[in-house]
User: Fold this.
Amino acid sequence: MQALERRLGVTGSIAIGVAAMVGAGVFFVWAPAWDLAGEWMLVSLALATIVATLNGLVTTQLAIRVPTSGGIYSYGRAYRGEFVGFVAGWLFITGKTASAAAIALIAATYVLPDQPRGLAVAFIVAFSAVVISGIRATATLSIGIVAVVVGGLVFLAVPAIASEGVSITFGSLPGWGVLSAAGLMFFSFAGYARMATLGEEVRDPVRTLPRAIIGALVIVLTLYALLALALIPTFAANGVSPAPLTALVSGDAMWLVGLLALVASLGSLLAILAGLSRTSLQMARHRDLPGALAHLSPATKGPLFSELAVAAGAITLVLVTDPLWLVGLSGTGVLSYYAIGHYSALAQPRAERFLPPVVPILGLVLCLVLVVSLPVASLIAGVSWTLLGVLWFVIARSIRRRKNPPQG
Assistant:
């Protein structure tokens, strides 16, 4: 079996994780979260942060013991068997391919709002070319994107807090709306474990992965907290718009928000494409996907055919589906994927754990709670795709058994 080269250090891994998190979501999630929870979206942000932290800790614990590409697909196989691992991988690939398509459309909409699909395809092609060129190029570009986006968002949030202060008056608790808003806000955190999907390309994974995952999470949480404190008083006074971060700038600086949204969306797209191709590689190695996807390029040492297949899938979704449906499918898939991660961690022997069992138990419960708080259409889409994946697993396994019958 061909092995990927270990090129990534802590800084590059953190950059890929932050770039995956600070994407399109942070520029859109505040308005629907405000509509659902009002000032209580601070509680929603806290709940989403708790879920993300639990996921990050458990993913770290798993990644240390299974330091290979594939993320929870590999962990599920190691601790819960082939079928559970396959379901995790299928959820990740379908959910994140949908997410990549949606992000490309969002980025293109900022530039060509009337006809975004062609430009979205161009974005996917261009950033797939970066991924195909090698993981070091991906990490280098991610560092640049993170510097621009995080710096720009801090530049927007801090002056707003300094000039207006922080004055928040809580109304009546909206109940279920807090959970629904937390489910939306979680998607703005959902890129941190992308480092784990690149585990086979990380130098010294036992040392690097925990620092990278937690480091990326701390950076993004700090940024989101600043944005929430800046936005809530503005929303309470003036209401919200479809582009909520424009509330932090005057008319002359509106272009800055659009530029940051474009750069952040494309950074998230870059990281997602890299993680998707690595999970596809692992699944192909185990024949859960066609074996050709496991081929590594002699030039870049990366999974060339997996990278091309991911790009083709995302382009197809851009051309034939609706962005809202894509976001719903992605959301259900991502939370279910992490739920399987917690379920897998519960099977780790005591000697392999640095977390008490209550951590994956709580993470599993909270992931499932957020899944059921999502719109019904999202649940139906997620269940439908999962059943399709199970059908593929059964058919592929049956074919393999006929070709290689057990020796008796």
Remarks:
- DSSP finds 15 helices and no strands in the chain.
- Residues 35 and 202 are 41 Å apart (CA to CA).
- The mean pLDDT is 81.
- The first helix runs from residue 10 to 21.
